[in-house]
Design a protein that fits this description.
The chain is mostly helical. Helix content is about 75%, strand content about 0%. The longest helix has about 40 residues, at about 25-65.
Length: about 200
C-alpha cells in the first residue's frame, strides 16, 4: 500500500514537473512585469510634461496676461491630473485607468490650445525661455507617444496570454485578469505627437 502511494506521488510529481512549463505561469509573470515597466515609463513621461507646465504658463503669462481663460484651463487640467494617484496599480483598475487617461487627454487638449494662442505673440515666440520650454514639451510629447505605444504592445501580448488556452486556466487560478488599454480613439493619436514647435521667431 505504501509502495502504491509512493508510486502515485512520484507519478503526480512527474506530471506537475512536465506540465508546469506549458501552463503559462512564468510567461504570465514575465509579461505582467513588462506591462508594469511599460506603464511606469508612461507615468514618467506624463510627470515630465506636468513638471514643464508651471514654467510654460508663467512665461506665456508674461506676454499674454489677458489670455486668462486658456491659462486657467491649463492650470486646472494640470491640477486634475495631479489629483489622481498615478501608481502602477492603475493598470489593474479599468475605471481608474480610464479616469486617469481622460484627465491626461484634457491636459493635452488645453496645452494644444495654449500653444495655438501663442502664435499671436511674436515677442513670446522669440523669447529664449519659451523656445526652450517648447522644445522640451515637443520632446516630451514624442516620448509620451513612444511610451504609450510600448505599453499598448505589452498589454496586447499579456492579454492574449491571459485569454489563450491553457494559460487562461493558470491565469484564472492565480487571479490574473486582462488589463485596460488605450482606446482605439487614443491609439490613433499615438503615431503622431502634437506639434508644439514653432517656425520663425
Amino acid at each position: 500500500m505504501n509502495t502504491r502511494r509512493l508510486l502515485s506521488a512520484v507519478a503526480l510529481s512527474a506530471v506537475i514537473v512536465t506540465t508546469l512549463p506549458s501552463c503559462g505561469y512564468n510567461t504570465l509573470q514575465a509579461q505582467d512585469e513588462s506591462v508594469q515597466a511599460s506603464w511606469s515609463e508612461v507615468l514618467n513621461q506624463y510627470q515630465r510634461r506636468a513638471d514643464l507646465i508651471p514654467n510654460l504658463v508663467s512665461t506665456v503669462k508674461g506676454y499674454a496676461a489677458h489670455e486668462d481663460k486658456v491659462l486657467n484651463e491649463v492650470t486646472q487640467a494640470r491640477a486634475s491630473v495631479a489629483g489622481i494617484k498615478a501608481t502602477p496599480e492603475l493598470v489593474n483598475d479599468p475605471v481608474a485607468f480610464q479616469k486617469f487617461i481622460d484627465a491626461q487627454n484634457q491636459l493635452q487638449g488645453s496645452l494644444s490650445r495654449l500653444m495655438a494662442v501663442t502664435e499671436s505673440y511674436p515677442d513670446l515666440k522669440a523669447n529664449q525661455n519659451f523656445r526652450d520650454l517648447s522644445a522640451q514639451l515637443e520632446g516630451t510629447e514624442n516620448r509620451i507617444a513612444v511610451a504609450r505605444k510600448r505599453y499598448i504592445d505589452s498589454v496586447q501580448t499579456y492579454n492574449l496570454t491571459v485569454r489563450q488556452f491553457p494559460s487562461n486556466l493558470t491565469a484564472k487560478v492565480v487571479g490574473m485578469h486582462t488589463k485596460p488599454n488605450f482606446s482605439v480613439a487614443n491609439e490613433s493619436q499615438i503615431s503622431q505627437a502634437p506639434t508644439v514647435s514653432f517656425s520663425g521667431s
